[in-house]
């Protein structure tokens, strides 16, 4: 929109570099070009402002494929006005001389023209294409067909419009159909994921088996080496025992030889010592027997009272030591009674 200011009944317009301004004064063209700045009177001026920059028009429309499936097409068309004079004549780009705003809706008219033309060519190509083919190669074919159709459309050059680029953003079926089409792919992806999981598990099991086999082989090798160690220890022990036995045999033979030599050298002396020991033992036995016989003979001649006294003495010698003796009244009474009886009968006896 042009920038317009007011000064004492005059108006000043300042245009943008991307806007082509046409000023007619009393039916005659006074100013024509982009980025103009000039004074004018609103009662005698007719102004038109045509944008000459690149503009993008987004469009969304529905189409039907050859197998009667509805699809939604999202596209963007980039265009620009290359001939502002023709466009200003074919479309209403006039602006209010007081406010600078468009009196009509020229860009909406231009958008409708481009949208209808693009939609016509897209419907034409999709009507001969199945849904599966449209989803696979439909974007490229629809883009080429729209670009070719817009380039060949005679109304656009006649209006001063040039199409710069055409982009097809998406081509999508209805939600139910899209879900149905996604199901096989999802199932296949899930199967591949399950297959990868099973393969990973199989690899893990194989690795665990290899590890177990390595551990078992290690245990077998360890047991074999332990067996070798036990055999070697037994061999060493047997060899050591044989060496000890041989040494003992040598030592015993030497001792026996020494004993034989000693016996041969001093045999008579040993016999004499043995005879002397036997004689001494016989004499000691005879002396003990004689002493015992004398003891019996002496005791046999002694009277009974003396034997009792000797027996009491021997018994007293063998009794334990008595530090104190407690005599109860009953025992003392009995002893006194006996002593009394003994004293009474003593002189008569």
Instruction: Say how many strands there are.
Output: 10
- Distance from N terminus to C terminus (CA atoms, Å) equals 181 Å
Mean pLDDT: 83
* SS field, number of helical segments: 8
Order of helices and strands: EEEEEEEEHEHHHEHHHH
What is the strand arrangement across the widest sheet?
4-3-6-9
Low-confidence segments, given as residue ranges, are none
In percent, how much strand structure appears in the residues? 15-25%
Rg, please? 72 Å
Q: Determine the structural class based on helices, strands and strand pairing.
A: alpha+beta
Shape: rod-shaped
Helix content: 55-70%
Major sheet size, sense and barrel closure: 4 strands, antiparallel
What does this structure look like?
Helices cover 61% and strands 21% of the residues. It has 349 residues and is of the alpha+beta class. A four-stranded antiparallel β-sheet has the order 4-3-6-9, covered by helices on one side. Strand 3 (19-25) and strand 4 form a beta hairpin. Helix 2 (106-126) crosses helix 3 (131-152). The longest helix has 91 residues, at 175-265.
């Amino acid at each position: 929109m042009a920038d317009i200011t007011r000064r004492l009944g005059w108006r000043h317009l300042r245009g943008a570099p991307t806007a082509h301004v046409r000023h007619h004064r009393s039916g005659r063209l006074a100013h024509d070009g982009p980025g103009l700045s000039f004074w004018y009177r609103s009662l005698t001026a007719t102004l038109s402002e045509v944008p000459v920059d690149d503009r993008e028009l987004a469009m969304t429309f529905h189409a039907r494929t050859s197998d009667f499936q509805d699809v939604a097409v999202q596209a963007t068309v980039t265009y620009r006005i290359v001939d502002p004079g023709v466009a200003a004549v074919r479309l209403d780009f006039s602006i209010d001389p007081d406010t600078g705003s468009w009196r009509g809706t020229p860009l909406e008219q231009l958008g409708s023209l481009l949208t209808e033309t693009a939609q016509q060519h897209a419907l034409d190509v999709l009507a001969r294409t199945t849904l599966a083919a449209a989803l696979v190669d439909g974007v490229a074919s629809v883009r080429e067909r729209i670009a070719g159709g817009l380039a060949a459309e005679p109304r656009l050059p006649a209006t001063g419009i040039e199409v710069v680029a055409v982009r097809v953003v998406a081509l999508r079926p209805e939600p139910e159909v899209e879900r149905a089409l996604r199901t096989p792919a999802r199932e296949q992806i899930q199967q591949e994921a399950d297959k990868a999981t099973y393969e990973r598990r199989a690899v893990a099991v194989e690795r665990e088996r290899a590890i177990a086999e390595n551990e078992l082989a290690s245990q077998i090798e360890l047991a074999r080496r332990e067996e070798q160690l036990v055999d070697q220890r037994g061999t060493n022990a047997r060899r050591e025992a044989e060496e000890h036995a041989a040494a003992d045999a040598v030592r015993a033979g030497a001792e026996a030889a020494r004993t034989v030599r000693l016996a041969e050298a001093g045999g008579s002396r040993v016999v004499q010592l043995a005879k002397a020991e036997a004689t001494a033992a016989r004499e000691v036995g005879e002396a003990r027997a004689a002493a015992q016989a004398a003891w019996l003979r002496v005791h046999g001649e002694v009277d009974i009272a003396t034997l009792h006294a000797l027996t009491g003495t021997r018994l007293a010698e063998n009794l334990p030591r008595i530090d104190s003796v407690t005599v109860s009244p009953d025992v003392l009474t009995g002893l006194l009674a006996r002593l009394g009886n003994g004293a009474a009968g003593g002189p008569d006896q």
